[in-house]
Structure formats: structure tokens, C-alpha cells
Design goal:
The chain has 1 helix and 33 strands. It is an all-beta fold.
């Protein structure tokens, strides 16, 4: 059953992290990763990184029936309080099972369902959570649906979905109010789902590469929702059967987009936060003298130094150098530590403490860490196995964008041009749940004006019910006990509404 809710702007007090993230945007203050095996062994649950503390506080956490062995995403509110996590199978609170209302069965496609029946969701960087613009209580989840693609002889993303989560429902436990909305339907590259803040400081750009091409789908998320803007083709073509086991990232200043994997090495573009366009494609190659089959990438907080992982080696590149490839510096080579400390170099993320944490492949009980990634060469202070963790991890780290990027210092006309909506947010309302049985909740994205009124019509146009809405109301309950099963048209009379009517389906 789909549920719908409102877009409501709420101003919350700022939360100050000690010497770590700024008080501006703390959506990535909590990291959860690891997996669950029902053996009773506490080492087989999850690890929690809490960046409210300096140094980061690391503890074990049991997130029941959630397996971050591939897909991993979550988000906090602006106070840094964890709202939900997902392994692309379900959307859950921090304690896992049961999922939040509507958060079950997020795996909408056959192969996702198969993977979810045996473990976590399919694909690294295959799910991403963002705050819904201009709403402190709502979030959006982007996630792939996988299918079998014979030409690639592999499972590939064949849809990009989105879902909306409203955390003010169910006494703050939240609900997935709509899901499985198709945004892109095409064969997509495995993973590489990432986002960056728009130059206006409010909206987001979301990017996903097309498989078997050099093209990228660009989505803009604004207060009116996600919109597919265009498909841009730039740089080298990546073949469909060789675009896997990699990572994508935007630089913290939003001006660079990088994509890395073991077949095609490193590809870097300039990115325009106003238009969403890529330009100035350049590459860097890595030696094949030792086998590697994973490729990760992260960029330092000062947006100058890029770090690339090639399974057993860590490299630093200088994004300010004209010849990117010539700037490569080998930082370290994997020291061969045996299990359970085993874990070569793969997924890499810049954390709120401005360190870069690196997860390995297979199961491991440590992370590698770059302590000073803003420094050139060996001064970056890389520590293999530098962060012991209390539980096992398998590959995964949460797929977060860089949240602490604001509006451009020299902004474009960010409310016009390529795919930009008008500056004034259109007013509206949503109905939840729908279909419904006993009652529906009407939620306005702005408080009701004086004289606001709801009217219910049959599909033949006959007025069969009405209700006044007090001025200042943001939600109102409409009982449906006296309405037979069927379809009804709900009209709200209020000044400035964008969507003055919606269909309600009553099923008992």
C-alpha cells in the first residue's frame, strides 16, 4: 500500500560536533556497516562509527536482519540523529527489524529479491539517501533494480527507482510513503550512484552511468521531487561487461567527478554545479604488474588530492596538476596480513572527521585510514589496519555524498536554465494512505489559509461530503467509514494550491 505525505519546512537548532563536522549539515554523522549471522557470536553483527565524538566513537551494534555485505545507505537528520538505514532490501531504524512502515520489500525485481532472501542487497553504491530539499523531516532513497542482461552475461541495474521516507509519521518512527517510482529505465553500470549539491545550495544533482557507453544520466532533486534532466555522453566508453567493481565520487567542492574501476582505471571530469554538465575528461592509468580487480576512489576535504585504490596498492594524485597521470604517487602496498585482519584496499570514503576510511574485500576486522588526506605524498599519513573494528565487515561502507557543501560563492542563476524550477515552491497537499479503508490523512506543505475546505466528490461529480479546515492546520484526518468501496475525488479549496484535487481509492 502506498503512503503519501507532505513537504514541510521545519527549522531545527544547530548541533555542534566537537572538532569534527560543522553544525551545518550532519546527515552522515553515523556510519553502520557489517553483517549478521545468527550464531550468537557478537563478532558477527555490526560496527557503528559515531562522528559526534573526536576521535570517532567505535562500538558494536546489533542491527537485526540487516546485512550490509553489498548495498549500504542511511541518513541522519541535521542534528546528526540516525533516521534510517537500508541494505536495499528493507528500510529500517538503527535497531533493524522490523522495518519502518512501508520499508519492507524494497527489492522490487527478481534478482534483488533473490539476493535479499540470502543476504544483503545487490551491488556496492547501488543505493543512496538524500534529504528532501526544503523539508527537515523527509528523505529520498535512490536505488537500482537488477536484471539479467544476456549481452553482458551478468546481472546489471536495469532501473533506477526512488522512494520517499517521512520521518514525522508513526510517532517519529517514520514510514516509506511511496516507493518503486521508476526514474530511469535502461541498462546501467554496476554501482557508481552518487550525488552532489547544486550551486543554489538547496537542490541536488544525482548521477548514474549508462552501461556499455560513455553516457551519464543526470537527475536533479528539488522540492518538487526528482527529475531526469538529460543524458550526457563524455569521455571514454566503458564496455558493459567491464564496468563493475568500482566507485564514483564528487569532490567536496563539487567541481570534480571521478569514476574508477580495475578495467578502465581512473576517469576524472570537471563538473558544473549550475548546469549539471561534465567537461574536460582526463584519465590516469595504473600498472598491471600485480593483479588487481577492485578500484576505489576518494577525494580529500580540500578537493586537491585524489586517492585511488587498486586492490593491493594505494595511490595519490594531484587534481591541480595539468597532467593528472604524471602526478601519481604510490602511497603504500598491502602488507599481506592474514585473516581475520585480511582486507585489501577497495571502497574509500571521506568521513566527517576529514579522514578517509578504506574497506577491504572479503570479511575483515579493520579499516585502513588516511589520517591527513589534505597533505601531499607520504605526509598524508596512511595507516594499514589502522582502525580495528569490533565486528566483521564484508566490503561495505555506507554510500554517502559530501553533505557539507553549500551554495556556490559565485552562483549561477540557479532557479532558471537547465531543468530548474521556478523560485517559488508550489503549494500542495498529499493523501496518505492511498488506497485506504478507515480514514486518510491530508497533509499540506504549508499551513492552511483562512477559509480552507475539503470536498469529496463521486466520480460522477456529485458532492458527497465536505469538511472545514481550521486556519494554520498542516494535517487533518478525513474519516471514510460512510463511503462505499470505490474511487473518489478529493478537492481542497485553499489559496495558492498547486494540486487542488486528488483521487482517493477506498478498499476494505
Amino acid at each position: 500500500m502506498k503512503r503519501f505525505s507532505l513537504l514541510l519546512t521545519i527549522t531545527l537548532p544547530l548541533f555542534f560536533f566537537p572538532k569534527t563536522v560543522s553544525a551545518q549539515q550532519n546527515w552522515d554523522a553515523i556510519w553502520l556497516f557489517g553483517y549478521e549471522i545468527p550464531s550468537g557470536d557478537s563478532l558477527l553483527y555490526h560496527t557503528k562509527f559515531d562522528f559526534h565524538y573526536n576521535p570517532v566513537k567505535i562500538t558494536a551494534a546489533d542491527v537485526a536482519f540487516v546485512n550490509f555485505d553489498n548495498a549500504n545507505a542511511g541518513i541522519c537528520n541535521q542534528d546528526g540523529e540516525l533516521q534510517f538505514v537500508t541494505d536495499k532490501c528493507d528500510v529500517s531504524n538503527w535497531n533493524g527489524w522490523p522495518p519502518i512502515q512501508g520499508g519492507e520489500n524494497m527489492a522490487n525485481d527478481k534478482y534483488d529479491s533473490l539476493y535479499c532472501s540470502t543476504g544483503g542487497g545487490l551491488g556496492q553504491q547501488s543505493v543512496l539517501a538524500l534529504p528532501w530539499p526544503d523539508s527537515a523531516n523527509q528523505y529520498i532513497l535512490f536505488y537500482y533494480g537488477f536484471g539479467s542482461v544476456p549481452i553482458a552475461n551478468a546481472l546489471k541495474p536495469v532501473k533506477l527507482y526512488w522512494a520517499r521516507i517521512d520521518m514525522r509519521l508513526n510517532n517519529g518512527q517514520g514510514a516509506v510513503v511511496e516507493k518503486h517510482n521508476i526514474l530511469v529505465q535502461d541498462t546501467l553500470a554496476n554501482g557508481y550512484l552518487q550525488a552532489v549539491r547544486h550551486a543554489n545550495g538547496r537542490d541536488w544533482w544525482v548521477m548514474t552511468p549508462e552501461a556499455g557507453s560513455n553516457c551519464y544520466y543526470t537527475i536533479k532533486l528539488s522540492p518538487t521531487g526528482p527529475h531526469l534532466m538529460f543524458k550526457q555522453c563524455a569521455g571514454q566508453t566503458w564496455l558493459m561487461d567491464k564496468d563493475w567493481i568500482g566507485q564514483a565520487v564528487f569532490s567536496p567542492n563539487g567541481n570534480t567527478y571521478a569514476r574508477m574501476n580495475w578495467h578502465y582505471d581512473l576517469h576524472v571530469f570537471d563538473f558544473d554545479r549550475c548546469s549539471g554538465l561534465l567537461s574536460n575528461a582526463r584519465t590516469a592509468d595504473f600498472p598491471d604488474d600485480v593483479p588487481y580487480n577492485t578500484g576505489g576512489v576518494a577525494i580529500s576535504a580540500n578537493s586537491r588530492f585524489l586517492y585511488a585504490t587498486t586492490t593491493t596498492r594505494l595511490w595519490q594524485l594531484d587534481l591541480e596538476r595539468p597532467d593528472l597521470d604524471a602526478s601519481k604517487i604510490l602511497i603504500d602496498t598491502y602488507d599481506g596480513q592474514p585473516f581475520p585482519d585480511y582486507g585489501v584496499f577497495y571502497l574509500s570514503y571521506l568521513a566527517p572527521d576529514n579522514k578517509i576510511y578504506i574497506a577491504g574485500t572479503s570479511s575483515h576486522r579493520h579499516l585502513h585510514v588516511i589520517n591527513s588526506p589534505d597533505s601531499a605524498g607520504l605526509a598524508c599519513d596512511f595507516a594499514q589496519h589502522g582502525v580495528p573494528i569490533p565486528t566483521f565487515n564484508y566490503v561495505s561502507l555506507p554510500n554517502y555524498p559530501f553533505f557539507r557543501l553549500g551554495a556556490s560563492a559565485s552562483p549561477c542563476d540557479s532557479m532558471s536554465g537547465v531543468g530548474i524550477e521556478p523560485k517559488e515552491q508550489a503549494r500542495g497537499f498529499v493523501v496518505y494512505p492511498n488506497p485506504a479503508s478507515g480514514a486518510v490523512e491530508i497533509a499540506f506543505d504549508q499551513a492552511a489559509s483562512s477559509g480552507c475546505r475539503m470536498e469529496v466528490f463521486s466520480m460522477m461529480g456529485q458532492l458527497i461530503g465536505s469538511q472545514n479546515v481550521p486556519e494554520g492546520t498542516v494535517t487533518v484526518n478525513l474519516p471514510l467509514d460512510n463511503y462505499p468501496n470505490g474511487y473518489y475525488f478529493l478537492r481542497v479549496i485553499d489559496a495558492g494550491l498547486k494540486n487542488p484535487g486528488q483521487i482517493i481509492t477506498i478498499i476494505r
